[in-house]
Amino acid sequence: MIAPAFTPPNRLLLGPGPSPVAPSVLRALALPTVGHLDPELLRAMGECREHLRAIFGTSNAATFAISGTGTSGMEAVLSNLIEPGDGVLVATHGYFGARVDEIAGRCGGVVTRVDGEWGQPSDPQRARDAARGRSIKLVAVVHAETSTGVRQELAPWSALASELGALLCVDAVTSLGCIPIEVDAHRIDGIWSCTQKGLSSTPGLAPVSFSPRAVERVRSRKTPVQSFYFDLGLLLGFWDAPHGYHHTISSNLIYALHEATRLVLEEGLEARFERHRRVSTYFLECARGLGLAPFVAESARLPQLTTLRVPAGVDDLALRKRLLSEHDLEIGGGLGALKGQLWRVGLMGYGATEGNAERCASALRDVLAGERGAAARR
């Protein structure tokens, strides 16, 4: 028997990603598919690159989108810039810093990992001390740690990479389109993000940017990039004129990226950043009114991703299931060592509105009352 046509539920996505997709982006996805070398698609791709340069804050020619999720962007940047035996310094203060470490090691890097406390930014001085006496060719940090809601200031890491004569690579998966990055100002050599969070498109593309110095590092490699799919030279052969074949990119995802990035620039970056700050402040006021405490200190807190401590006696998973089944609302739980201890509430991109903050707080109020009552009866 053939199943009926699939109809997804209409959820309000307020977790760590994906975030709500703007209606005009959804409409763009439904436009007619064209070939991956169609002249009109190539024109749209070129405009996407210009949009991404503005949002990243860079003039890097090698700015484009990888076919894949944010992790594909991470793997593409690291696999191009790390050769076997290269010294790599990775600062971790959460789940995704650990993923950078894992991929850097798989690329053959000799990794010096500096672990920080989850919930606090990494300490550049500790990393500097750990690098002493080592040959470091690449420094990697996470700008917005999705597992904890921590914001990492980039200027000290730029200074450290310069001291070491190393490339600086940055995970901007949860920061692009929500807070300033300023790739050129911070002398970032390799950076990756995704389309389903601050840009409010669907999953499927990973914006990346490589500095001229990074491109030269790739060109002077002694060994081939171990991944054919992520080889920067081959990818630029597709994205740059005369656009040779590399893979069949999704034209529909390019339409969506074009519209999503156009919306970001139409709003204006400063206005967009201020909206995220305003909505975050409002949501935290609501959360505190429910007796919920933030996990991260104000000085290091991301406006687009608020992490809240799960109150004692409340079943994390049961509450999130009720939010989904009774309110069609999704928030995230903790990862790794913080599983069961945190709620991750994303108010990102198109989803960053006071109305969504109020709806989330209202749903939490309703479900928490039931969960606290159940805990009292146990």
Q: Can I get a quick summary?
A:
The chain has 378 residues and is of the alpha/beta class. The chain has helices at 23-29, 39-56, 70-81, 95-106, 124-131, 155-164, 212-219, 232-239, 251-267, 269-289, 316-327, 354-377; strands at residues 12-13, 62-67, 87-92, 110-115, 138-142, 144-145, 150-151, 167-171, 190-192, 205-210, 305-309, 329-330, 332-333, 342-346. The termini are far apart.
Question: Any overview of this molecule?
Answer:
The chain is of the alpha/beta class and 378 residues long. It folds into 2 domains: 23-265, 3-Layer(aba) Sandwich (Aspartate Aminotransferase, domain 2), CATH 3.40.640; 269-377, Aspartate Aminotransferase, domain 1 (Alpha-Beta Complex). Helices cover 42% and strands 15% of the residues. It has 12 helices and 14 strands. The chain has helices at residues 23-29, 39-56, 70-81, 95-106, 124-131, 155-164, 212-219, 232-239, 251-267, 269-289, 316-327, 354-377, and strands at 12-13, 62-67, 87-92, 110-115, 138-142, 144-145, 150-151, 167-171, 190-192, 205-210, 305-309, 329-330, 332-333, 342-346. The strands form 4 sheets. Strands 2-10-9-8-5-3-4 form a 7-stranded mixed beta sheet, with helices on both faces. Strands 11-14-13 form a 3-stranded antiparallel beta sheet, covered by helices on one side. Strands 1-12 form a two-stranded parallel sheet. A hairpin with a 4-residue loop joins strand 6 (144-145) and strand 7 (150-151). Helix 1 runs antiparallel to helix 9 (251-267), helix 2 (39-56) packs parallel to helix 9 and helix 10 packs parallel to helix 12. The model has no long low-confidence stretch (mean pLDDT 96).
